Amino acid sequence: MAKHKTTFFCQNCGTQFSKWSGQCTACHEWNTLVEEIIQKEEKRNWKQTNISKTINIPLAISEIEVNKEQRIHTQNKELDNVLGGGIVPGSVILLGGEPGIGKSTLLLQIALEMDQQVLYVSGEESQSQIKMRAERLQYKNSNCLILTETKTQNIFKNIEKIKPDILVIDSIQTLYTDQIDASPGTVSQIKETTAELIKFAKETGTPVLVIGHINKEGTIAGPKILEHMVDVVLQFEGDRNHTYRILRSQKNRFGSTAELGIYEMLGSGLREVTNPSEILINKKDSDLSGTAIAATLEGMRPLMIEVQALVSSAVYGTPQRSVTGYNLKRLNMILAVLEKRAGFRLAAKDVFLNITGGIHVADPAIDLAVVSAILSSNEDESIPQNYTFAAEIGLAGEIRPVNKIDQRISEAEKLGFDKIFISKFNKFKKEGRAIEIISVSKIEEIYALLF
Known about the structure:
Blueprint: E1 5-10, E2 16-17, E3 33-38, H1 77-83, E4 92-97, H2 103-113, E5 118-122, H3 127-136, E6 144-148, H4 152-162, E7 166-170, H5 187-204, E8 208-212, H6 225-229, E9 232-237, E10 244-252, E11 260-266, E12 269-272, H7 276-280, E13 291-298, E14 301-313, E15 321-324, H8 328-340, E16 349-355, H9 367-379, E17 387-390, E18 392-393, E19 399-400, H10 405-414, E20 419-423, E21 436-440, H11 443-450
Parallel strand pairs: 4-8, 4-9, 5-6, 5-7, 7-8, 13-17, 15-16, 17-20, 20-21
Antiparallel strand pairs: 1-2, 1-3, 9-10, 10-11, 11-12, 13-14, 14-16, 18-19
């Protein structure tokens, strides 16, 4: 019997070591090194037989023929937008997210809605459990086939018989192959099973959608090379206390990574939110101080979000700075600008900031809305609900221009806002606007106009 060679892998970052140690020198995590067996036998492809004996030859770039990919539409507009127009044949898509956020529900719902034949492989749930979830989703399509299996060789045998148009794997951490003598979920098993799925997708042109678990840091569990191997990496996120979910693209070889999709989690599944501005703005009966509407942009999609601020005297001596859905360091910077440049005494006051809807916004164009909400709460005077803001705040107290201002103005106009406050250095189309556009250059000007 041949002697097996073993090595040690960090289960957090995937770094390989020749001997065991208590701490991984790459990610500095403790007790994450696990011994795994490496077999030096020849690698076999997904079908266990050598299909292609041809050798690729180099071609001049002018000789290479480019065929426009015919994307597969998923009947889910939000996912299609995030992917750049649909699923590219032969692509491998990795979907990550926290436990219970709705990853399996999203992919099962898509599999039940598509016209193509989909093979849904689950290593975590039984067929009856999936059927119960499908009935809750009120499915109408019977083209989806359910398989509960974790061994890749058995999965590929079923694929040869069925020949599905799309393959869904739930999840990659539950799969294992006979070619590696290690437990499912280990670094070597994840790398080998993913390599088999990628080879299958490229040779047959079948798209593969894979669910991946995440670790405590919020990154996809397993080796970092997993995200480099696949074509698309999607992140499904949201606050579990809220009903809204956001689908973001962290990597996309076939489109932009700036797009996002928004869903609402209901008892009957995930509902696509076509106009997210309406759900991110609370309808109030009376004007309240400390709230302002910002015109932000996520990818190519303009959004109107509500910014809430609360400014109060520091009870315990040391002022508190707390944010939800916003960058704390940027809030501290804005407060320092208000203190130094505009003369507002906020150093001895508690400041709490919240972005409604359970989403996180990194767009600097909401700075002016943040300043307006803070000043509104500090003065205890409300800002009219039909006002919105789109500008960045500089360290000198100046109001700086932001990109794609025409799209922000058009979205505010479409939603019925009467006034939008922007930087006077922004260039925009003035003709045919029903909304009043007010240009400002300093914080003092916005304070005089509002209060």
